[in-house]
Amino acid sequence: MSKKVILESTITCPECKHQATETMPTDACQWFYECTHCKTLLKPLKGDCCVFCSYGSVACPPIQEGTSCCS
Length: 71
Description:
Elements lengths: L7 E5 L6 E5 L9 E2 L6 E2 L8 H5 L5 H4 L7
Antiparallel strand pairs: 1-2, 3-4
């Protein structure tokens, strides 16, 4: 039985706390995200594979599935 993968995640900017709900790509990692409010360029935190794993409400699809991301 496969687990249902959630494709939407709410990113919270660490600078201005603005939140935006985005659809995560299923075929690539997203290493950069520009805050739509303050224009800060977000990058993954050390040890995280993408901006959704660092700043999102839901981890990226490969992590949700228990596989490695960005291989």
